[in-house]
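Researcher: Let's continue the batch. This sequence belongs to ABC-type polar-amino-acid transporter, and it's 249 residues. Same format as the previous ones, please.
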Amino acid sequence: MTTSAQAAPAIQIRDLHKSFGSNKVLKGIDFHVDNGEVVCVIGPSGSGKSTLLRCVNRLEEPDSGQILVEGVDIIDPETDLDAVRSRIGMVFQQFNLFPHMNVLRNLTVAQQKVKGRSKKEAVEVARANLEKVGLSGRENVYPAHLSGGQQQRVAIARALSMDPDMMLFDEPTSALDPELVGDVLEVMKTLAGEGMTMMVVTHEMGFAREVGDKLVFMDGGVIVEEGDPREVLANPQQERTQAFLSKVL
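Model: Same format as before. Here are the structure tokens for ABC-type polar-amino-acid transporter:
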């Protein structure tokens, strides 16, 4: 990576717009995530937060604006999108594991096909990441025989096995039973403590308060308020933020 890329924010978004038909979902978003920073994005359903996250690796195609990932404009048609995506780990609400592959194969298939790693190397990386998420010894289990929390931890380990520079989490605990949420958040806390750059769309206010470096509140396709999570959660400045937090805290 070049020095200029390291000096640039991990993610820089400028005047981003996105509509689905006549529905304007993002209305001129300006936003950045610095290297090593954990940014938590909160807001009501339909506020545009997941669409914003999905635009960052072009799972959604923006209508206009700029998205720079480590200084590279990913909307530029000349950009090698696969090369950029290889540096961005993504964890979804639904775990998106391959049901016909055991845990180990789920973690090694992209390493071998995309990263060109040997089977031996891919297995070593996979085992190390399964240990990191507390699932050593589950290599031969199929996803259907794991709890939702275990499946989500496998999904995180799979993303980590690609050696990303940053991780995007789209409401990673929202599909889980409440008692399974803690294990997934614990893994995310560990990653944050190791300095992983993270953008997290979440309903988990405790996680945002404890782990986040910045909290962004979105509503109606705009950023209403952003700042230190502890300050925003304790003393929101905007009326819309106050109304939202009064319902969720």
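Researcher: Any comment?
Model: Confidence is low (pLDDT under 50) at residues 1-5.
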